[in-house]
Amino acid sequence: MGEAARAAARALAHAPTVQKADALRRAAAALREEADAILAANLADMGRAGAAGLGAAMLDRLRLDPGRVAAMAAGLETVAALPDPVGREIAAWTRPNGLRFAQVRVPLGVIGIIYESRPNVTADAAALCVMAGSAAILRGGSEATASNRAIHAAFAHGLAAAGLPEAAVQLVPTADRAAVGAMLAARGLIDVIVPRGGKALVARVEADARVPVLAHLEGLCHVYVDRSADPAKARAIALNAKLRRTGVCGAAETLLIDAATPPALTAALLADLLAAGCELRVTPDLLGLDPRLRTAAAADWSTEYLDAILSVATVDGVAGAIAHVERHGSHHTDAIVAEDSAAAARFLAEVDSAIVLHNASTQFADGGEFGFGAEIGIATGRLHARGPVGLDALTTYKTVVRGDGQVRPG
Predict the structure, then answer these.
(1) Residue 196 has what pLDDT?
(2) Residue 138 in contact with residue 167, Cβ under 8 Å?
(3) According to CATH, what is the number of the domain 221-364?
């Protein structure tokens, strides 16, 4: 598979934009035409996952319906319409000796993507890699085997119909965990590994990989409500950040409330969440506000629930919020709700996360919401890319130097 991918990557690297875009549009059409088969495959996966005791959050990630299949197809068309990064000049300068330098975006080569549960990643990752001129080797989770195969088959049809090699996007045909080990050791065949899944998966990849890794860690996301927060904004953002979809990595897992926040707003924030069916695990000072509140354990502050459960703590202003996020966060996505511009500026500057927001929900941690069309995931490391990994982040660059006979003096 690696050798076939390298050959396909060479073809993709020089494929014109119109051909790559045509492949994605044809793949989108194939997804729509094969929607019934894809949904039947997903129903089989859901049945097996339910029998195996998969949790509600993971089942939500696995589940497809006509709307989600339509959204996958539309996502491919959105990526097809994005500017092609390959060949784009990102910097240029001339030296006193007349040498002209230009940094130009080029494909990464072969990208190995290891992911769990979400079958839509099969389509999103394939589209982004192809448009970025790279081949992809996809290894999905065993719980989504049938869904991934059905989606991949539709995508392969689009590649072939556009005259691109089907090996440009390959799906590992086995659920054997040894396949992951083989990918992690495939230096020289795979250029970059992108893990997208739970803490255990990412930890294994980072520990065992002999290939560079673009890590996507868990989403321990926080919403901090400052004493200056507008009550209506704070209540709407807290509800949306936690409960719009609890199983996504941008869902808030901890609500931090300034100890100087008006008591009425603190009580309203908790009441809204409880009324919506959210379990709240809180610091002792908040227990008296409602008998349904539970005392938070030490582990709660570092737990990604992916469920209708939220940890809530009072903190000593913006400094306390920043300290809490630094201690317990995963550098994914964190938000402040505040009308005090100085407090907001401090939070945005000092919280070292891939995405920081002011007066907006953490659920905007999504490539589509950033205007990227789709994403492979949210990168939480420091090297190469941070935040939603879209087209540009799936390229590197080379420096092209043009001269007129210059030689370097001794």
Answers:
(1) 84
(2) no
(3) 3.40.309.10
